[in-house]
Amino acid sequence: MILIRIEWSVTGFYSYSNRKNMKNLKISLNTLLVFALILLIDSCAVNPVTGKKQIMLMSEAQEIQLGAQYDPQVIATFGEYKNENLRNFLQQKGTEMGVISHRPKLEYHVKILDSPVVNAFAVPGGYIYFTRGILALLNNEAELIGILGHEMGHITARHSASQQSKQQLGQLLLIGGMIASEKFASYAEYAMQGMQLLFLKFSRDNEREADQLGVEYSSKVGYDAHKMADFFEVLNKMNMAESQGGVPTFLSTHPDPGDRYNSVHRQAKAWQDTLKLASYKVNGDSYLRMIDGIVYGEDPRQGYVEGNVFYHPDLRFRFTFPAGWQLENLPTQVNMGPKDGKALMIFTFAQGSTPEEAATNTIKQLGLDLQQSKQATVNGMPALATICRQVQQDQTTGQQQAIGVLSYYISYSGQVYVFHGVSAEADFAGYLNTFESAMNTFATLTDPAKLNIKPKRIQVRRAPRAGTLASAFSSYGVPQSQMTELAFLNNMELTDQLPAGKLIKIIGE
C-alpha cells in the first residue's frame, strides 16, 4: 500500500414506469442506430501498418491525450519500480525502435511497474509498461527487445485504440437496446462486460500482427528475434491462474493466437535472411547484470500479512483485521472483507492535515450524510470517528438502498490515515463492533524483526566450476526445494551442463 484515493460512485440505469413513452424511445433508438452508422462511415482511418482503412473513433491527437491520462492511473495502481539504469536502457531502446517503426513521429514512453506479476502491456499514445516480474523472468536483451517490439506493434497498428473504438460503438448500440427494453437493462452490467468477448477474435489477430511487428522491429535494431519465440515458450510453461492468484498476466491479457513459437521462429529467419546483418545481438550477460538486485516476488516493505495482522515496515504501522476475512494489499489502498461480501473495510490515506479536515474533505467528496461524530484516541494517536449514511440506487431494480459507513481518521507521523467500514444499513449494526475493534488496533510498528524484513532479490552469480546447473546451485547453498523454480527462472534444466564462469540467477536478500 503506497498512497490513497478512493471514490464511491453509483450510477443508476434508466428506469421506465410509464409505458406510453416507449414509442418515443423506439424512435430515439432508431435515431441512435442511424447515428452509429454515420460514425461507421465517417470514422474510418488508414492503419499505419497495413495501409487499409479501419474503424477509428479517435484521432492520433486524442489517442496521445488518452495515453497521457492513463499513465498516472497506471502508475498509481501498480507503483513505479525505481531502477534508473534499467529504465534508461528501456527508454533508449524504445526511442531507437520507435524511429524505425511504422509511427516514427510518435513519442514512446517505457516504464517499469512495481509488480511481481509477469506482464507487459501498452496503452494508446505510445506508453509501454514492463512489470519487474517479467523483467526477472527474462534472461537476455534479445528477449526483452522482442517483447518491447511486440508491445510497440500494438501501438503502431493502433490495436488498443481500435479496440476502444469498437467497444465505444458496441456500448453505444448496447445502450440503445437498454433504452428499448426494461428487461435488458437489468442485465446491462453483464452485457457490458461481455462486449470485450465479441472482439476476442480480433484480439487474436492483433496478437499475430504484434508478433510479426515485434520480430520486424527487434531484427531491424539488430537483435536475434528467435529469442522472442523462446520466451513465449517459457510463458506457456507457466500455470498463470494458480501462480498469480488470478491477477492478469501476459498470457491472460495477450490471448495466444496458436503456433506462436514456430511462427515467430519462421518470421525471425525470414527477416534475418532479408536484412543479412553480420550478427544479431543476444547479450545475455549484460542483461543479467542489469537485473542483478531486482526485487523478486512480493515486496514486504510495502506491506505484508502474518496471520490476521497487516504490517507496513516502511510506514511503521500495524493493524489487525477480523479473523476469516480476506485482505487485498493494493498500491492505492488495503481492502478487507468477509467471503460473503456483505461488508467491506478500506484502509488508506486521507486528504487533510488533521482528522477533522480529512473527515470534512472525505464526506464532501463521497457525498456522505454525517450522522454522528466523536473525538477519539487510538493507541495514543488523536483520531476522529464518524458514522455516515449514503443512499444508493440499485442498478438492477432501480430501488433505493442505504448503506452505513463507520470511519476512523487517525493522525500518525504527519499523515492522516482512514479506515472505512461499509455495509448495507440493515446489516450495519451487526458489523459496527467488528469494524471498530479492528480500527482500534492501528498502532506504531516497533518490532525490529518486522521493521527490518527484506524483500527477496535476484542475485546474479557465476558458476564456480564446470558442471550441471544443479551443482552450481548447490555451491551457493540453494535448497533442493527451490532448485526447480530457479531452473525455470534461468530457462534451463537442472541437468544442463554449464561452463565455469557462466552467469546464473539465484534468489537472496
Question: Could you explain how this protein is built, in words?
Answer:
The protein is α+β, with helices and mostly antiparallel strands and 509 residues long. It has three domains: 54-157 and 200-291, no CATH class; 302-451, Protein Transport Mog1p, Chain A (3-Layer(aba) Sandwich); 457-508. Helix content is 44%, strand content 22%. The strands form six sheets. Strands 9-10-11-15-14-13-12 form a seven-stranded antiparallel β-sheet. A four-stranded antiparallel β-sheet has the order 6-7-8-16, with no helix packed on it. Strands 3-5-4 form a three-stranded mixed β-sheet, sandwiched between helices. Strand 4 (120-123) and strand 5 form a beta hairpin. Helix 1 (22-42) packs antiparallel against helix 6, helix 3 (84-99) crosses helix 5 (141-156) and helix 9 packs parallel to helix 13. The longest helix has 22 residues, at 159-180. Residues 2-44, 164-202 and 240-247 have low confidence and may be disordered.
